[in-house]
Design goal:
single chain, 401 residues, alpha+beta, Butyryl-Coa Dehydrogenase, subunit A, domain 1, Butyryl-CoA Dehydrogenase, subunit A, domain 3, 4-stranded mixed beta sheet, binds flavin-adenine dinucleotide
């Protein structure tokens, strides 16, 4: 039995996954192996991946996992999402996965939760079906962790909203057909932000030049400009000036999805390292015949298993609609931090080959670096878990991203 088959078989031992989840996992796994894994290097070199992949992923049900059939979804649960993320590691291509994650778990759930029927018809269903690509626009050049500091304004002008400002680091930003956009609608710091469904074919909207990144090279990460863009007021998503609070709640789903993705790529790193270490000969024996490596990987497998239970505990609470801010925050903090050490050591086993683009391990190591930064930095996770004293917190007008 191949290492990865063994790991997949072990996973089925978890009590939460049903036959339906397993079928879904197997379908996504096949898609990743057959249609993506072999192309990752070429797409990285081209700094892009094909837009059609969104449609293919949608046809397999990746974007409608927890969405009602009325809007094109299959109405499964968070365990189905866990099965999907677990399978997505076989892309060997974190760049691709972040774009799919933005569609599946950063934008679609917000519209599903807050949208009116007409908004769901226009934005949700086409996104679930992969006909429209979505992005989430929160961060700006001057505001990342401190979401309430955003400066992009959406001013009411008659029946329209006039939007001016900038967004930075927006995944899928250049290819998006629409953006779930956070913008200021009043001067109040936290009570002055609204969410807006922003179609990108509007006059005054433009995309800046490509951002040169250390990793996630093929992923579209954009700098967006809004110069008096006019859109109908009916594109306001949810209640006016409630956007900050919607985002804070929604970020739990984003962080849970991120934890699942990171967990999945830690598993992949271990699979790749074990496979390589079993065949590469050094000084007349396999690399893994050196006890130092067997012990190192044993420690990492143990830590990743502990991380899995932390993530699954958070997921179980979210899945049952229970409060889970602490658990989700811990899961995001722990997995993203652990991933740095796991991927580093797994790459080390490959020696010089690990440092080339021929093997996926280098790409995974490099791309996992993002996750102590994106979806809320590790420092912010710690601030959520251990906030300053109440008196200071009031003075500083928390919360933060
Ligand atoms: C590849 C990529 C994709 C992204 N995709 C998106 C996207 O799709 N949509 C989107 O809206 N954003 C996106 N982001 C932005 C991301 O969410 C932000 O980069 C992140 O929230 C951090 O914000 P910042 O970069 O402005 O850092 P800052 O907020 O300026 O923080 C700088 C440093 O200060 C630390 N810090 C901040 N506050 C504290 C504190 N109280 N105590 C101690 N340390 C602190 C931070 O942890 C960090 O180390 C993406 C970023 C990247 C790199």
């Amino acid at each position: 039995m191949m290492v990865e088959e063994k790991v997949a078989a072990d996973r089925r031992e978890y009590p939460y996954f049903t036959e339906e989840h397993e079928l879904f996992r197997a379908t996504i796994q096949r898609f990743c192996r057959d249609e993506i894994a072999g192309h990752a290097k070429d797409w990285e070199e081209a700094h892009a991946y094909p837009r059609e992949l969104f449609k293919k992923a949608a046809d397999l049900g990746l974007f409608g996992i927890r969405i009602a059939p009325e809007w094109g979804g299959s109405e499964m649960d968070w365990w189905a999402s866990a099965a999907a993320y677990d399978a997505l590691r076989y892309t060997d291509f974190p760049s691709l996965n972040i774009g799919l994650m933005v569609q599946a778990d950063l934008t679609i759930p917000l519209i599903d939760k807050l949208g009116r029927a007409d908004q769901k018809r226009e934005f949700l269903k086409p996104a679930v079906l992969g006909d429209r690509i979505a992005a989430l626009g929160i961060s700006e050049p001057e505001c990342g962790s401190d979401v309430a500091a955003m400066r992009t304004w959406a001013r009411e002008v008659g029946d329209e909203l006039a939007i001016s400002g900038q967004k930075l680091w927006i995944t899928n930003g250049a290819i998006a057909d629409f953006i779930v956009l956070a913008a200021r609608t009043s001067k109040s710091r936290h009570r002055g932000i609204s969410l807006i469904l922003f179609p990108t074919d509007v006059k005054g909207f433009s995309v800046g030049g490509r951002i040169g990144k250390v990793g996630h090279v093929a992923s579209d990460t954009a700098h967006l400009f809004f110069d008096d863009c006019r859109i109908p007021k009916r594109y306001l998503l949810g209640r006016r000036n409630r956007g900050f609070y919607y985002l804070m709640e929604h970020l739990q789903g984003e962080r849970l999805a991120t934890s699942l993705l990171v967990l999945s790529f830690m598993d992949r790193s271990l699979e790749l390292a074990i496979e390589y270490g079993k065949q590469r000969m050094v000084f007349g024996r396999h690399v893994l015949d050196n006890q130092v490596w067997r012990h190192k990987l044993a420690e990492h497998r143990t830590s990743v298993e502990a991380a899995r239970w932390l993530v699954y505990r958070a997921l179980d609470l979210v899945n049952r609609g229970r409060p889970a801010v602490e658990e989700v925050t811990m899961a995001k903090l722990f997995t993203s931090d652990l991933a740095q050490r796991v991927a580093y050591d797994c790459m080390q086993i490959f020696g010089g080959f690990g440092y080339t683009t021929e093997y996926p391990i280098g790409r995974i190591w490099r791309d996992l670096r993002l996750y102590t930064i994106g979806a809320g930095t590790s420092e912010i996770m710690k601030e959520i878990l251990m906030p300053p004293s109440e008196r200071r917190a009031r003075r500083r007008d928390t919360p933060r991203r």
